[in-house]
Structure formats: structure tokens, C-alpha cells
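Memo to structure team: turn this sequence into C-alpha cells by end of day. - J.P.
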Amino acid sequence: MDQAKPVSYSGQGFSLLGEKGRFVLPPEFRKAVRDSGQGERVLCLAKHPRWKCLTGFGLGRVAQFEAELDREERIALERGTDFDREMRAAQLYGFAQVPFDDSGRFVLPERYFRLGGLSDAVYFQGGGLQFTLWNPEELAKMGAGWEDAQEACLDLAARARTGKGGK
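Reply from structure team:
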């Protein structure tokens, strides 16, 4: 990966919890995570700071964290709002590194099932520098602006459950 050009995550995917308790990272996300980590098959996972879901990204995103903290702190100062740099840094740097195989299979650490409200299915939504991992039921609770993701999730879930793809 060219260090000057960050990896971007776009599109959607879906995975049912499979045998041996593994989910499958969709191919497009898998490639971007590998590219970000300079070929390493390591998925970084964290609790989203506002929504009941997880965030995922590759190892290369970590190099951007300090600049992101600086930017968020500057914006807070300009707006005259509080900014707890230590808390935000803990959120950014508190991610888990989860290996995945060539087919994208990974075991989600148990605490992330609770933190993300996940159970037997996960919907992946591209989001630029990172992507989100949703329980379809939690995504369905989101309000205006989420309609496209909600419809994509329903479509991919139906295909996955009937064995017609969706990973």
C-alpha cells in the first residue's frame, strides 16, 4: 500500500455465523484490510463511539490516529466545546487485532458480540476510512438516512439465508 494514500472501504457485505463460530469478511473488505496492513491478514475491531455496532479497519489506519486526534481537538477548541483527548485516544487505540484466513474467516472475540449487539449474523457497511459491522436488528432501529443500508442488509440477509450468496 502507498503510505500517502489511505485505504477506503466501500460497499456492503453480509455473513452468517458459521461452523467453528466464525464470520466471513467479505472479499472487498478483506482486500482493503490486507492492503492497509501491507499484506497482513489482521482485522482491527473496536466499539463504535456512538452507535450500537463495531468498526473495522486495517493496521494502516493506526498511523492516522494522532492526526485525527489533533483535528478533533482543534475543532473542539474552535467550537468552544470540551474534548477529552485521553478518552478519545483510548477509543481509537483500544482496538482488537483479529487474524483472518485466506477465505476471510475470523473468530469474533466474545466481548465484541456484547459491545456490538451481535449474534448469528453481521452486516458490513463501508464508511471510508473504516467500515461498520452491524447486527441487522440494530441497523433496522437506525433512523432517517439509513434506508439504503437497511435495504441492502435485508437483501443480503435473504440471499445468505437461502444459500444464494451474500458473503
